[in-house]
Structure formats: C-alpha cells, structure tokens
Specification:
The complex is a heterotrimer of chains A (290), B (360) and C (269).
Chain A lengths: L1 H27 L6 H18 L4 H27 L4 H23 L6 H4 L6 E3 L5 E3 H23 L1 H11 L1 H6 L4 H27 L5 H15 L4 H21 L8 H12 L9 H5 L1
Helix pairs in contact in A: 1-6, 1-7, 1-9, 1-10, 1-11, 2-3, 2-4, 2-9, 2-10, 3-9, 6-7, 6-9, 7-9, 10-11, 10-12
Chain B lengths: L15 H5 L5 H20 L2 H26 L7 H19 L3 H25 L2 H25 L6 E2 L4 E2 L2 E2 L3 H23 L2 H11 L1 H6 L4 H27 L1 E2 L6 H14 L4 H24 L4 H4 L2 H19 L3 H15 L13
Antiparallel strand pairs in B: 1-4, 2-3
Helix pairs in contact in B: 2-7, 3-7, 3-10, 3-11, 3-12, 4-5, 4-6, 4-10, 5-6, 5-10, 7-10, 8-10, 11-12, 11-15, 12-14
Chain C lengths: L4 E12 L3 E12 L3 E5 L6 H9 L7 E10 L2 E2 L5 H7 L1 E4 L11 H6 L8 H14 L1 H5 L10 H14 L4 E5 L7 H18 L2 E6 L2 H7 L2 E6 L2 E7 H6 L1 H6 L12 H9 L6
Parallel strand pairs in C: 3-8, 3-9, 6-7, 7-8
Antiparallel strand pairs in C: 1-2, 1-4, 4-5, 9-10
Helix pairs in contact in C: 4-6
The chains are: A mainly alpha (290), B mainly alpha (360), C alpha/beta (269).
Chain lengths: 290, 360, 269
C-alpha cells in the first residue's frame, strides 16, 4: 500500500513537471533543458516572497507563482525569441546555457545549502495516515491535488480557450498561424510562462515538503523521460508517462537497488526510444519534423 | 561548405591532389614548422602551472575534435560525451585494478570499449534524428555513469580508483613536461586523423548525411553505415581521451564525469565554431582556460575573499552567459570571427565577396 | 491616385539574402471589389510579390529594398505578418494551408478575428459553412484528414474568418483536379459578390485565373511585362501561345523570339 502511495506521489511530481516540457515543446518544438533549473528557481522565489511580500503562506505562494510566470515570459522575450529561426539544436543549447546560468546565480544569491521555506513560513508538514497502513505527508498530498487541478485546467484551456486553440495552432504551423493574425511571440511567451509556472508549483511544493537545494534540478531532469515516454506533444501522454516512470523507479528502488534511482527513468526512456520513439500518445510526424 | 579560407590572388590549384593537400603554400609550411617548434619548446620555458594548463588544453582538444567530427560534420548530436570519456577512464581504471594492465594494453582497450559504446550510442541514430537522438545519448550518459558508480561501490572504491602513472621503457611518466609531450602527441594525432577522415570518402559521406539523409541515400551513400561509423570512430577517440585523462589524474571517479562535462564539450564546439576543426581547437582552448580567467578576474575585484567560496558559482553563471552570447550573436563561433578578420584584410578595401562569382 | 484603389504596389524591389533580386520594380494596383490575377511561370516573382504584400519575406531572409506596398493609404512593406493580417489582408497560402491536428471548427476558431465577440465568431463560422456546406458536414474532422479540395475550402474559409477586405490567394489550382478548381473559382466569384471582398489571385494556370478576374498582370523575370483587362489578355496572341497553349500547329515560334519577347516590356489595353 505504501508502495502505491509512493508511486502516486512520485508520478504526481513528474506529471506536474513534465507538462512544462510538453507545453513548450508542443508550441515551439524546443526541448527546454533548463526546465529543472526554472523549477528550482520557483522554489527560491517562494523564499523571496516569504521574506519580502508576506509571511502569509498562501500570499507568498501566489506571489512566487506570479513571479515565475513572469520569469518564464522574460526567458522567452530575452533569450528564446532570439533563437527563433535558428537550428533546433541551437535553441536547445541555449536552454542548456540558461540552465547553467541559473544554477550559478542561485548558488550566488542563496548559497548551495539546503533551505527550508516551510520553517520560514512557520508551516508544519503533518503526516496523514491512510487506510491500509500507508501514510503520506501533507505536501505530498497537495502535490497530487495540484497535479489534478493543473492538468484539468490545462486540458480545458487547450480544448476550449481561444488562446489555447491559438497555442495548438501555432505549434502545428507557425507560418500559417502568423498568416492568420496570431501573434506568435505572444503565444510562445505564454507557453514559456505557463510552463515555468507549473514547474515552479512543483518546485515550491517539493521545497515545502522536503527542503530546497540544487539537487531538485535532477528531479526536473528525470521528469523529462516521463514527458517523452508519453509523447512529447501530448498532455495525456505526460500523465501516462509519469505514472510508468514513477512506477518503474519506485519498484526498482524497492526490489533491486536504491542506486538505480537516477538511472531508471533513463532506462525506460531508452526502451521507449527503441520501440516507439514518438511515445505512447505523441504524434508520429513530430519525429520527422525535428 | 567552405573548406578553405579565401586566398590572396595569384594562387591557383591545378590538381585534385593540390586541392586536397593539408598544407598548401610555402608560407603555410613555414608557419606550420614554426608552430611545431614553438609547441615543442613550451616545456622548456613555461612554469609548471602554465604547463599543466597547456596539458589540459591539449587533452580537451582531443575530445573536442571527436565531438566536432560527430556533431559538426556528421550532424549527429550527442549529449553523452562525458559518458564516453567516463567509459575510457573506467576501462583504464578497471584494467589497472583488476589485471594491473600496462598502458599499451589499457589504452587500446579503452579505444575498443569506446568503439563498442559507439555502436550502442549510434544504434538509436538509425531510427532517431535531432532532438530525440540527443536525448538518447543523454540517457546513455546516465547509464554509463551509473555502471561506473556501481563498480566503484561494489568493489569498495567508493571514493574512486587510484591508478599508477604509466611507464615507458621502465621510465614512468610523471613530470609535467613528459605529460605535456604525451598530450601534444595525442592532440596532433587526433588532428591529423580528423583532417584525413574529412578529406576522404568517409568524411564526404558524413557531410552528405548531415546535409540531407534522404538525398545522401539516393546518391548511393550507405546512410546507416556512415552514421554508425561516425559514432564508432569518434567514440573511440573520446574514450582514448578519457583513458589519458585517467592516467594524467592518476585517479578515476564518477564525480568527474557529470552532465556539466558534456555541456562543456558541446560549448567548445559552439564557441569555437560548429563544423570546423580549427573551431574545435579554439573552443577547447577557450573553455579550458575560461575558469582560470574568471578566477583571475574575480581575484582582481576588491573584497575578493568574500567570493572565494562561491567561485564555482560565478564560473557557472559566467559560462552560461558566454554560451548564450555566442549562440545569439556569433553562431559561427570564434572561427567565424577569425574568418571575418581574414576576409577583411584579404578583401580590403572591399567589404563583401562577390556573390556567385569568386571562390567561397 | 484613385480613391477606390485598395492595394498599390509601387516599383517594388525584393532582394533575397542581400544578393538575389527576385522582383525588380513591379507595380500593381488593385481596385476595391475587383478580382485581379497575377500570372507567370516559375521564378517570375509572383510568390515573392505576394509574400512582400503579406509580410512573409523576412522568413526567407528577403527584404523590400525599394518601392512600397500601400494598403488603404497605409505603408505595409516590411511589417510583421500578424499585424498585416490584422489590417484586413488574409492570405490563402500555397503550402501548409490548414492546421493538421485541429478540427475544422477549431481551424476556423484559431485565427485572431480582430478581437471578435463570441457571437460574431459564431456568425463568421456560419458564413464559411454557407459558402462551403461541405465543411459543415465535416465540422469535427481534423485538418490533416481532409482531401486536397476540402483543404483548399478550409483554407479559404479560415482566411474569411479573419474578416478580410483583401484576400490574397496563392496558387489556388495547384494539385487540384480541374473540376474542383472550377467549383472553387465559382465560389470565389460568389464570395466577392456577397461580401464585397477584393481578391488578388496568383496563378500559374492563366486560363483558370483569367476566367474569373477583371484585370490581369503578367510577370516575367521579376517584372510586369503585360497588363490589361482580363478579357483582352485572354485574346492576346502571346498569352495564348505561352500561357494558354493555344497556338496553331506550325505557328510556334522559336525560343530566340521568346527571349526577345521577354526582354521587351510592353503595355497593352
């Protein structure tokens, strides 16, 4: 029972992070390898808002989320916008460079030591007992709730929202989208903003749950196989992929070797690339377009 | 793709052999000879610190050349370069620990390991392109590093494997000068190998595959063989570089082969200039010396003691900024700057080369 | 200048990659409510002209280096494409006509229709179905699964949703069966009649284009070599010979004469 809870929590973490990969990839065909760092930055934003704006946890979290939405938009405006029209590889490498830059800056400003924003905000993290003898920490439960909320909102937004339809349109054919009067830069900036926002939400909840340091970048990187296994341009895929990767990881750690934790997602990824490179729910043409 | 920079007037190539020659004019011969003498003379005058820097640069050049061949010429993106270096280093380390193998066994063994891994890294490239390929090499990087870590922990070398320096004819190579010469030799061999591959059929096939796989296939090039070959050859080169690294350090540990190392190598070929051997060399020099330059700069700032602890963070940030600047403002890298300077002097007082006419 | 002129292209010059001049001094004018055809062979500069009007030349590293494009008295050359689209110029592109993974309804909802209200958007969607009833039947089908003719209908439809005053159509007949093209052309005439939309057609197939247009321009090598009323152009002997393939046997002239013809710049009509 505890295993199932662990799988669900990890899947929720991966899902919440990997939808950011999907959003950016789907709209601009760029793989954002700085997503882990942006997610970490979200956690540090919470420290900033907790110290400056308000010690009210909800206000602080909301402030941090707004900040990260802006950070995402700014990343597009000041960096990725310059990379449009360049090779895909160049754009991906720009995100890699951004990741290194962010990592350096975070250490410079906040040091490499682990921080506990939950203590700053005087929040406790009670353990909830579940039927079947399993237990879950409060913020882990919040992670699952957040994932459900974020995904249902995103589904509705992309399906029915006019900006959502425009985002999907821009992702399929940027040229045609511009001809139809869609402001591509606006759409791209929105995608980056939303992606950073959801990533930050994950970062904030993880930070509240178990502390904040540079190591959570690795969690962000491990969420990437989840996105790819499901299909890089599919939200449903990201959910399914997260569940698969999380299950594989938890089970391998439990039954085989804890050292495997950082490799299992990538092993799953390799397996998927060999069998079905476009992922469970991805579109096949996406592969040829790269 | 322009292989040769523009030349001043009065020089014509009259045969294919001439067109393919690595060194073409008398002036170039002189310059090459002068450079060779200068490079061999460095150990006589340089301080131990500078010599160590030069050795590191030369080692980085070997790895960067391999990556430049793979990514710049054959067009196969790899984010797993550190994994290949690790494979070479661990081959050397394991052979030394388990069998006490001398370097003339373990280095070729590293090359073989690299070649075998090249097949593994390369197989996905038969199905995948672009980003997806990059991702698969990234995943393999983690697998290789995991296997290395597993070996370390299972055999009880949890902090790393110590390796004795290699010995040649009973003399063990320990001094900075000796290492400098070894690495110089390795770098020269790698450079000649790369240059020769590029002017052979193989190199042309790689470039054709890079430009357009379908067309290359239609022209009778075995695309699969070209891709796999590119992976095998460059992985082998990289693994040997990893083996040399292990010997030079006298120590192997997975911590040395983080993703950041892969990124540094990619940065070398971006900053130097994609699709150019000179670019790989310049990039290797730039990236290797960069942290030392930053350290020196920070040292000059007032109150530098305060930053001493976070120097590596400054390094990270500055490195990220430099990479971004190159990607945005100088996608052709240092080589692009170099070529523009060359053209500027050659074409002066004109600004642009004639379009269509003239040799590009 | 005539106040009824909707679009004026004046001595337009477009240079690709700072090197290749694709269009050298083309002048066109399109009056309100007209259907104007621009015909020419490959490389004549038709598509470049169209892209210069719709703002899509920056992508190919091309620039308008001389001359101007004026839409309703406003200079629009070298402006970003989505702003041009919002001024009321809609393009039906040659390739990539529809969003392949969006349904027809979503394809029609995607364009930013000048910040229209929900009911207005609904009305425009219905308008498209009025012209193309076939699309209404397939409403939920995704763009990628449509046939060539249906795709062209959807492309015209999603241009109409933008509520344009000027419709630019690039190679309507490309890859379509003659009977389908004929149907689409009739539809264009109907659209012009009912919505009072001005249409600029760019075509390789001269007979198709001249059949429904009021005025025509013939481009060769980046220049306008002939222009005139469509009806008179159709009867022009050189148009007949080189574009309509109607020369009598034995009457065909040699290529040298064609070249001479290409060099000459004549006005007709």
């Amino acid at each position: 029972m505890q295993l199932i809870v662990n799988i669900l929590v990890l899947a929720a973490i991966y899902a919440l992070i990997s939808c950011g990969y999907v959003l950016v990839y789907r709209v601009s065909r760029v793989l954002n390898l700085a997503h882990g760092e942006l997610m970490m930055l979200g956690g540090y934003m919470l420290i900033v808002t907790a110290a400056t704006i308000s010690s009210n946890p909800i206000a602080a979290i909301a402030g941090a989320l707004v900040l990260s939405l802006m950070v995402g938009g700014l990343v597009y405006v000041f960096l990725m916008r310059k990379m449009t029209g360049e090779m895909v590889l160049a754009a991906v490498l720009a995100t890699v460079a951004l990741g290194i830059l962010l990592r350096g800056l975070v250490i410079l400003f906040w040091s490499a030591q682990i921080q506990y924003p939950a203590q700053t905000l005087a929040l406790s993290n009670p353990t909830l007992n579940l039927p079947g003898g399993a237990s879950i920490s409060f913020y882990s439960a919040m992670l699952i709730v957040a994932t459900v909320v974020v995904y249902s909102t995103l589904f509705a937004f992309l399906r029915f929202g006019s900006w959502g339809i425009r985002m999907r349109a821009a992702g399929q054919s940027p040229l045609l989208a511009a001809q139809r009067g869609i402001n591509l830069h606006g759409v791209y900036a929105l995608a980056w903003g939303l992606s950073t926002l959801t990533g930050s939400l994950a970062g904030i909840l993880i930070a509240l749950d178990s502390g904040l340091s540079q190591t959570i970048v690795m969690i962000g990187l491990k969420a990437f196989p989840a996105a790819l296994v499901g299909g890089l341009d599919s939200l449903v895929g990201a959910l399914a992929g997260s569940l698969i990767v999380a299950a594989a990881e938890v089970l391998m750690i439990h039954y085989v070797d804890p050292l495997l934790a950082d490799v299992v997602p990538f092993l799953v990824l390799i397996g998927m690339l060999v069998v079905r490179p476009w992922g469970l729910f991805g579109t096949r043409e996406a592969l040829d377009r790269v | 793709m322009s292989r040769h920079p523009p030349r001043a007037s009065g020089y014509f190539r009259t045969s294919y052999a001439q067109d393919h020659a690595l060194i073409q004019t008398r002036l170039e011969w002189l310059a090459t000879a002068a450079l060779a003498v200068a490079l061999c003379g460095v150990p006589l005058i340089a301080s131990p610190f500078l010599l160590d820097l030069a050795t590191q640069v030369l080692l980085a050049i070997v790895g960067a050349l391999a990556l430049a061949l793979l990514t710049g010429y054959a067009g196969q993106i790899s984010l797993g370069h550190a994994g290949l270096l690790a494979a070479g280093a661990f081959t050397v380390g394991i052979l030394f620990k388990e069998f006490n193998a001398p370097f003339w066994i373990s280095l070729p063994a590293a090359a073989v390991t690299g070649a075998a891994l090249g097949v593994v890294f390369g197989l996905p490239s038969l199905r995948l392109r672009g980003l997806y390929l990059a991702v698969s090499t990234l995943a393999l990087h983690f697998v290789v590093v995991y296997l290395g870590g597993e070996y370390e922990s299972k055999r009880g070398f949890s902090t790393g494997i110590m390796i004795d320096p290699p010995s040649l004819l009973g003399v063990s190579i320990t001094s900075g000068r000796a290492w400098y010469l070894v690495m110089l030799g390795a770098a020269v061999v790698a450079l000649l190998l790369a240059a020769n591959i590029l002017r052979s059929h193989t190199g042309r096939a790689w470039r054709a595959v890079h430009a357009n796989e379908t067309v290359a296939g239609a022209l009778g090039i075995n695309v699969a063989a070209a891709k796999l070959g590119a992976f095998v050859i460059t992985s082998s080169m990289t693994a040997v570089a990893g083996g040399l690294f292990a010997y030079h350090r006298g120590f192997v540990s997975v911590e040395a082969f983080s993703l950041y190392l892969s990124i540094q190598y990619i940065a070398m070929i971006i900053i130097g200039g994609m699709g150019s051997l000179l670019g790989a060399v310049l990039g290797a020099i730039f990236v290797t010396l960069f942290p030392y330059a930053i350290e020196a700069l920070v040292g000059m700032l007032p109150g530098s003691q305060r930053y001493a602890g976070s120097l590596f963070a400054v390094n990270y940030a500055a490195f990220g900024v430099v990479m971004i600047l190159f990607l945005i403002f100088e996608p052709l890298g240092l080589v692009g700057i170099w070529r523009r300077l060359q053209s500027f002097f050659l074409l002066w007082p004109f600004k642009q080369r004639p379009v269509g006419g003239g040799r590009k | 200048m005539n106040s009824d002129t909707m679009l004026t292209v004046d001595k337009l010059e477009v240079v690709y990659k700072r090197a290749i001049t694709a269009v050298q001094g083309i002048s066109l004018s399109v009056a309100r409510g007209q259907i104007v055809a621009v015909i020419g062979t490959n490389g004549a500069g038709k598509s470049t002209t169209l892209r210069a009007i719709s703002g899509f030349i920056g992508i190919d590293d091309a620039r308008v280096t001389d001359g101007s494009v004026t839409f309703k008295g406003q200079r629009i050359d070298n402006r970003p494409p989505h702003t041009i689209a919002r001024l009321g110029i809609a393009l039906v592109p040659e390739r990539e006509k529809v969003f392949p993974n969006l349904s027809i309804a979503e394809n029609l909802a995607a364009p930013v229709a000048a910040r229209a209200s929900r009911s207005e958007r609904r009305r425009r969607e219905e308008l498209v179905y009025h012209f193309f009833p076939r699309l209404a039947e397939l409403r939920a089908r995704i763009g990628g699964l449509l046939s060539g003719g249906e795709r062209q209908m959807l492309a015209i439809g999603s241009a109409l949703v933008c509520h344009p005053e000027l419709l630019l159509i690039d190679e309507l007949s490309l890859g379509l069966a003659p009977v389908v093209v004929e149907g689409l052309m009739e539809r264009l005439v109907q659209i012009r009649r009912e919505l009072d939309i001005t249409i600029l057609l760019v075509e390789q197939s001269a007979s198709v284009a001249l059949a429904i247009s009021d005025y025509g321009y013939v481009l060769e090598n980046g220049r306008v070599v002939l222009d005139g009323d469509a009806a008179r152009l159709k009867d022009h002997p050189e148009i007949k010979e080189f574009y309509l393939g109607q020369a009598r046997a034995g009457d065909r002239r040699s290529y040298a004469e064609i070249k001479q013809y290409r060099r000459s710049r004549r006005w007709y009509g």
